Protein 1
Amino acid sequence: MTNIVFHSMPDSAYLWTAMHVADEKGAVYTFQPLVYRSDEHLRLHPFGKMPVMQHGEFWLYETAAIAHYIDRAFVGPALQPDAPRGQADVIRWISIVNNYVFPVMNRFTKERLVRPAWGFEPDKAFIDSAREPLLVQTRLIEEAVAAGGFLVGSELTLADCFLLPHLLFFSLTPEGRDLTARLPNARAWLDRMTQRPALAQSPMMAAFAAMSAGADRAGAARWAA
């Protein structure tokens, strides 16, 4: 079968989700860099988001659709339950990640780790405003993974692939470290996800290691919870 090509900026969290889905399915892919909002980018994705998938003559954008396609088009373990309720839970969690987790955790990580690395002060007003939604989000994650070990039951699904980059990088911030230390099931989920063989060679882990080293050097102040 033709290999997948992901067209994206390399540090896109949603590129990492798409690659993780492909890795879990054993699908072979390559990466083609895009310049953000260039003519080529907007031709491939009219809303200027990442990534875009190419599979032979088939082109697809929007990560939820890409993940669903890879799961159905390639052999390997199914990443969606057969039962209607299980499918609904997967879709619900993908929606939670896209609409609530991503806007907060992704921005929070950038404010705490990326902006200081470039010599800018973090946006304190945003950090203060994010504390309550972060508590809600991490509590829901803790409750969801407590029973079966994954967001939906006892097997990894697309929902876990969507959450992984956001919680993984958020856990590098002082607030993220504090929260995950107090949420044993969420911490165990993170450990379980990062130990999966499909993730071992992922570019996401190389980026995580680099950012982790930077976070340790920065020594940012802890969050007074």
Protein 2
Amino acid sequence: MKLLQLLFAGFIVITFSGSLAFKFLAGGTAVPESSQQQQDRINKLFEEAHRVDIIANTPPGELFDKYLTRDLNSCFSERLGRKVRTTYELLQKDAIQIGLGFPYYYIWVRIFDEKSGELLDEGVTSAKAMLQRDFGIGSKVWHAEQILKNPSFPDFFPDSLCLAILGRATVVQATNNVSKALHMKN
């Protein structure tokens, strides 16, 4: 699948970038700077390739929630060694697509014990959509405390999500602090 995606992207770039690409490939000569119009055309082609890749991998409609919930429950039940129930919130509406590959969604996940309903864990992780059937869940859950104490946390997330993640972590940490204070009073 990846090889086909790479070949398709290469074909599109060569086809639509005009004679400059052929001159470069044929003679090994330096390609002069392309016009803004050519650059815009190439950027649109890459955006279209990303859009096609997202559609090809993201489950449509109601299946998105069904499959993501299934895969979160399965993943965290296995990791924690007991049956769990999860809830999640997407931190962005659209997938983040870098290069050619699976599209990623970043989510705030809450993990509950299936029997008692006790909150076991909470934080941000990633989920990559694969072939409209599965989600690969990130290997790490970043907790509110880790996010707020680690100045390099933005290095691990797309820039466009850092403020949303910090905001969510701040709210969760404040809620935890209030809860602890109330328990200490009683």
Protein 3
Amino acid sequence: MNPIAQIFGALAICCSLLIYSRNEKKKLLVFKCIQDICWLVHYLLLSAFSAAATSALCVVRSVTFYGNPKKETKSKLVLLLFLLLYAVSALLTWKSIFSILPAISSSISTVAFWMKNPKHTKILAIFAALCTLSYNITVANSVSVYIGVSITILTSVTSLLIKCFQKTDSKTEKSKTEEQ
């Protein structure tokens, strides 16, 4: 089943290429939902049940945040509910101390997607990816996850740096215009 799992991992990676380069929250969430479904199947095939459980909750999270842009889904109560569900999933799938890492990663991601600012979402995605990387090293050991985490970190950092350089360039041009 490992080769089939890697195919689903590769599909998730393809979504990773698109997620954090999006500046529009709804588009970001669509690709994130598709990615989470692929990771869910991937982890199930690898018998990495802690990560599979949190991936399933991530699908629900993406659908909730995408489908209900109303205030009630943006409330702290909804955020706390998801954080509680991740903690419960870690307890239900507990095999070792590392079983908590997918729950931590998904909790960080949930906070990131709950926030309104895509910049904050991208910054927190880096920390979530590091938790996923740690789980993968200790439990799943999937090539797809190593590649996927690398892409998430790379695309998030690149997107953040591009915004920084764009702001710097516009300030430089404004200064040049004022000098003339």
